């Protein structure tokens, strides 16, 4: 029951944050949207920062599922592209977080720390995945670690900012935009492919 | 005299916006930083949105200078890289704008419209520049317009979001970070170079 109230608060907050931007939404707005008293909301979450952190916990849980390698399966480019598509879907669902990233991180050092350790381990995983593709003969060897790291950074720029780039340009982030983002991802990999894509 | 007060207001606002984020700075904060009465500031700028628009006008003026092709000179990859470096320097100077982009655009439809028409023409210019490099034998011909447009979008992702990517990761955006961004730019172009770089 209490758990369910907490989830309903997060769902309502997410809708309002996505629509109006987190900076323009107060806990009173969220309570009003739920027909709940501010005191009742406060019982579950003491302030907006706690709500944002709880939503970020949902994002990291969704990422963990999205990026889990299938048991016993070898990584493939197709798998990597499904992961990219999954990431775009997560970003679209929680778009306020990616749009307002700097503001949210600057407002809450605990959130910033959690975001950064999550990103650091994600970047490390990406580099390992690229190295696994090289070891598996899918990608050509890189001339240097710097070249491999740069490819990883470019993939991250697409993954982290394609939604913000497109929607700050005024385009609604729909399936066609996601497909274009996946195509960009593929363009980055293409020069490095050996031609063995299994 | 009046012009100079307007410029001093913009300088003070820029410092505060870069330090605290535009959402956390009021016109009263800006007036206080200048030892100016709120009424006096209001005489020059009616609200924060007008100040942000005036700062964006400075950004577009800086971009116009940065991206001007030298009279009679042919475009070169080195010139393009100097333009990227110049863009990073402009972003570093006005970093609040790029960090808080979505929030600022959603708060002011006039600013959003001006930002978008500026970006649209910038993207069109980038595509033309790439096409000029192909015509000049510096880049290999593209298999399709889509491939050329995708390269242009990737270059824009680096140009627009490298600073935000790095500083949301907690790294101060210094000269070394700018040099890494320029290197990413070069990585994107490398697979397309013919080897004739003049």
What would you note in describing this structure?
The structure is a homodimer of 198-residue chains. Chain A has two domains: 46 residues, Homeodomain-like (Arc Repressor Mutant, subunit A, Orthogonal Bundle); 145 residues, Tetracycline Repressor, domain 2. With 198 residues, chain A is an all-alpha fold. The first copy, chain A, is 75% helix and 0% strand. The model of chain A has no long low-confidence stretch (mean pLDDT 92). The termini of chain A are far apart. Chain A is elongated, with a radius of gyration of 19 Å. Chains A and B meet through α7, α8, α9 and α10 of A and α7, α8, α9 and α10 of B.
CATH architecture label of the largest domain in chain A: Orthogonal Bundle
Structural class of chain A: mainly alpha
- What's the SSE pattern of chain A? HHHHHHHHHH
Identify the most extensive interface between protein chains.
A-B, 39 and 40 residues
Fourth-tier CATH superfamily name of the largest domain in chain A: Tetracycline Repressor, domain 2
Q: What is the tally of helical segments of chain A?
A: 10
Q: Please describe the biggest sheet of chain A, giving its number of strands, its sense, and whether it closes into a barrel.
A: none
Q: Which runs of chain A of at least 5 residues are low in confidence (pLDDT < 50)?
A: none
Number of domains of chain A: 2
* CATH fold field value of the largest domain in chain A: Tetracycline Repressor, domain 2
């Amino acid at each position: 029951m209490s758990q369910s109230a907490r989830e309903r608060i997060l769902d309502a907050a997410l809708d309002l944050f996505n629509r109006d931007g987190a900076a323009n939404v107060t806990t009173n707005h969220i309570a009003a949207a739920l027909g709940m008293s501010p005191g009742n909301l406060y019982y579950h979450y003491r302030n907006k920062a706690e709500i944002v952190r709880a939503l970020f916990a949902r994002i990291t849980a969704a990422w963990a599922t999205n990026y889990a390698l299938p048991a016993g399966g070898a990584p493939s480019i197709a798998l990597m592209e499904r992961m990219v598509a999954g990431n775009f879907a997560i970003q679209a669902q929680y778009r306020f977080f990616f749009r307002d990233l700097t503001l949210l991180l600057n407002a809450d050092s605990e959130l910033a720390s959690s975001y950064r350790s999550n990103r650091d381990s994600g970047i490390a995983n990406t580099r390992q995945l690229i190295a696994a593709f090289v070891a598996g003969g899918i990608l050509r060897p890189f001339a240097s670690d710097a070249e491999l790291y740069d490819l990883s950074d470019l993939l991250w720029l697409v993954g982290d900012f394609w939604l913000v780039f497109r929607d700050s340009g005024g385009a609604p982030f729909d399936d066609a935009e996601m497909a274009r983002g996946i195509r960009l991802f593929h363009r980055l990999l293409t020069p490095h492919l050996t031609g063995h894509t299994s």
